């Protein structure tokens, strides 16, 4: 059998894949910690900045520069591990992972290998009312690499580029890598399970306060491992690893795509190549990266310049007391407080909107109103733009302010949607947009009365029906008034005026 990347195969229908194969998932999520300084030096660990302005001899790997472990990063790692129900090592070490990293100036990564700080944990995720236990193999500390920019090509990748630029600002930023064991038995729900796990993990990381967890800024990045095995065989197939998938939606799409691609390769009698792959957001496909190395290829050995990390049991228990509410228990509590049905809560969680709705409610909006905006108007816009809700630029404070204007009678839902147009256009706060666009509902009796008189005069047949007691016909006149006043009339007052004039 031949073994190549097979990027040109014709995908197998998803249902056909499920009839013949069992998928196995594995997820590796890198969390960039929000410490003030880098993992092993005092350089600022802030996003952005002029290229190579946040560097020093240590993170540049210059001879004689000695690393020192960031204590806050260790604390964050332990809190993440505890929140994931992990065991916390009483003693662990860092290791050197040797590999040619063009954007890692030391040409090795300081990581953890056989002695991670956190191990043997789990997280339960719910998909369509079914609970899947995702077992956590390990959560270990390491440092991020720098960033390469490839110049001169048409794709932004190294192939075809004239030259490359390297920014070492990110090199040395503290990372926690959370690695799952194979997730088996998900079947058709495998793509949704992957998305739900990453979304719930992000919510947990944000609740812990250890990272901004902004996927669009690379604070949280997911590598998706996928393999297929013959239906019912109970074995694991050869896996591929799709690197740096940066949205919940893309995680789901990448799993689905790789399932269909793997099946196409296997159905043709060929073998899957163990390799890393690149996800392309614009086309929704993966392409080959490089053959995937096994652990022994990295020539791990203990880092000689760092002492072991040995957190005391007293400190670990002290940190356990700082953990936020368990996400599963929190969802149950919020559902009860908000009065959501199982389906409403499931849809809210599935849309990645739970935290957004919670923040909006905390700012004064009614739960159903907050849910309506995030899962309706804003979810539609996010879907059209191919973005996550958290990346839209509209905040819970904005949504709460818009709903407040609806609640006090300044806006109706139709006008509120125009306020969202203004928010996306960067026209200011909701109140400023209402003033600038003259969107407020007209409640002045004089103006409404004149508009009602015009509608009655223009629709005498309808007016006669109302005089005869057919009050349901008032809807036609209300519609005429709303149209003439660009939707800015107080519909309740308009109805009162119509009935008063014609009864």
From TrEMBL:
The keyword Protein biosynthesis applies. InterPro entries: Asn/Gln-tRNA_amidoTrfase_suB/E, Asn/Gln-tRNA_Trfase_suB/E_cat, Asn/Gln_amidotransferase, Asn/Gln_tRNA_amidoTrase-B-like, GatB, GatB_Yqey_C_2, Gln-tRNA_amidoTrfase_suB_CS, Gln_synth/guanido_kin_cat_dom. Residues 355-502 form the Asn/Gln amidotransferase domain. It is an enzyme of class 6 (ligase). Allows the formation of correctly charged Asn-tRNA(Asn) or Gln-tRNA(Gln) through the transamidation of misacylated Asp-tRNA(Asn) or Glu-tRNA(Gln) in organisms which lack either or both of asparaginyl-tRNA or glutaminyl-tRNA synthetases. The reaction takes place in the presence of glutamine and ATP through an activated phospho-Asp-tRNA(Asn) or phospho-Glu-tRNA(Gln). HAMAP family: GatB. Heterotrimer of A, B and C subunits. Belongs to the GatB/GatE family. GatB subfamily. This is Aspartyl/glutamyl-tRNA(Asn/Gln) amidotransferase subunit B. It comes from Nocardioides flavescens. The lineage of its organism: Bacteria, Bacillati, Actinomycetota, Actinomycetes, Propionibacteriales. The gene is gatB.
């Amino acid at each position: 059998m031949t073994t190549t990347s097979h990027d040109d195969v014709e995908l197998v229908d998803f249902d056909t894949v499920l009839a013949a194969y069992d998928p196995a998932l594995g997820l590796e999520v890198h969390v960039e910690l929000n410490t003030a300084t880098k993992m092993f030096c005092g350089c600022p660990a802030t996003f952005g900045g002029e290229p190579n302005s946040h560097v020093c001899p240590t993170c540049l790997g210059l001879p004689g520069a000695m690393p020192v472990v960031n204590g806050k990063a260790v604390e964050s790692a332990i809190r993440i591990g505890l929140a994931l129900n992990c065991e916390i090592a009483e003693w662990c070490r860092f290791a050197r992972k040797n590999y040619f990293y063009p954007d890692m100036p030391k040409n090795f990564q300081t990581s953890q290998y056989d002695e991670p700080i956190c191990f043997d944990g789990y997280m339960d995720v719910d998909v369509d009312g079914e609970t899947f236990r995702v077992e956590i193999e390990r959560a270990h500390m390491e440092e991020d690499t720098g960033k390469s920019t490839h110049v001169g090509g048409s794709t932004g990748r190294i192939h075809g580029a004239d030259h490359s630029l390297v920014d070492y600002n990110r090199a040395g930023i503290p990372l926690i890598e959370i690695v799952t064991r194979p997730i088996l038995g998900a079947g058709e729900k495998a793509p949704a399970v992957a998305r739900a796990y990453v979304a719930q993990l992000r919510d947990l990381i944000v609740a812990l306060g250890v990272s901004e967890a902004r996927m669009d800024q690379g604070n949280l990045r997911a590598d998706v491992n996928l393999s297929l095995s013959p239906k019912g065989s109970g074995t694991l197939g050869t896996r591929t690893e799709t690197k740096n998938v940066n949205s919940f939606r893309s995680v789901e799409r990448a799993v689905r795509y790789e399932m269909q691609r793997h099946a196409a390769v296997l159905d043709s009698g060929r073998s899957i190549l163990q390799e890393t792959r690149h996800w392309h957001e614009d086309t929704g496909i993966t392409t080959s990266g490089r053959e995937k190395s096994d652990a022994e290829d990295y020539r791990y050995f203990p880092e000689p310049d760092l002492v072991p990390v040995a957190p005391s049991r007293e400190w670990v228990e002290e940190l356990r007391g700082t953990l936020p509410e368990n996400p599963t228990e929190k969802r149950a509590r919020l559902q009860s407080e908000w009065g959501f049905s199982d389906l409403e809560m499931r849809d809210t969680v599935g849309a990645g909107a739970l935290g957004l709705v919670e923040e909006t409610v905390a700012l004064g909006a009614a739960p159903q109103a907050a849910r309506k905006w995030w899962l309706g108007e804003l979810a539609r816009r996010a879907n059209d733009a191919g973005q996550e809700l958290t990346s839209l630029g509209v905040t819970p404070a904005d949504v709460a302010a818009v709903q407040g204007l609806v609640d006090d009678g300044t806006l109706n839902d139709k006008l509120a949607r125009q306020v969202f147009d203004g928010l996306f256009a960067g026209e200011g706060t909701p109140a400023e947009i209402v003033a600038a666009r003259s969107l407020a509902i007209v409640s002045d009796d004089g103006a409404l009365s004149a508009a009602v008189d015009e509608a009655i005069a223009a629709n005498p047949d309808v007016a006669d029906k109302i005089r005869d007691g057919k009050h349901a016909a008032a809807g036609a006149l209300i519609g005429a008034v709303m149209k003439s006043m660009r939707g800015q009339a107080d519909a309740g007052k308009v109805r009162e005026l119509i009935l008063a004039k014609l009864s």
